[in-house]
Amino acid sequence: MPDEPDFATLYAASPLAPRMAARLWVVGQMVHDDFRQGQPDMWLEQLPTVAGPHVDERFIAAFGSRFDVIALRLAEGLEELSAVAMCTADELALHLIIEYTEDLYGDGALDWEWIDALPARQRDEDFGYLKDLLFEDNDVLMLYNPAMDGIEDPESEIAQLERFVNLHPNDWFKTFGR
Hints:
The protein has eight helices and no strands. With 178 residues, it is an all-alpha fold. The protein has one domain (7-136). Helix 2 (18-36) packs antiparallel against helix 4. The longest helix is centred in the middle third of the chain and has 20 residues, at 57-76. It is globular.
């Protein structure tokens, strides 16, 4: 693992706690390594079923790179927390990173010693609060709900009514117009 960024300084004035940013950074790199080493199956299996027909080598490479992009953004510091996820693929990857981080942290599966040495904050372990901080909305999670089948179609009535954008897997890598 490369040298750790100075999360204490990068996130000193941020609502994102340095410890949480560091944990997400570590896990983002770990997941990206899985993709680079040709082991993306665990992660691809966690995507919404609508992705299935679109998963090919290009898609796998593009989606796997999102974990590295997120880790890099976290390592640089985020002035605007919503800037960590700039497209639907980022949002999905970030949700996966957060869930895996929570699992690993809860299980004590990793040595977090250097992270635990960072300044403590009240919400260092609050993964629900973390999701509120990093996501403007949860539209992407509706792709997992079978009752919402079809929302990925930008021409569908609900997609237009709710102004859903880039939910179709062909559009996951398009940057949001913010």
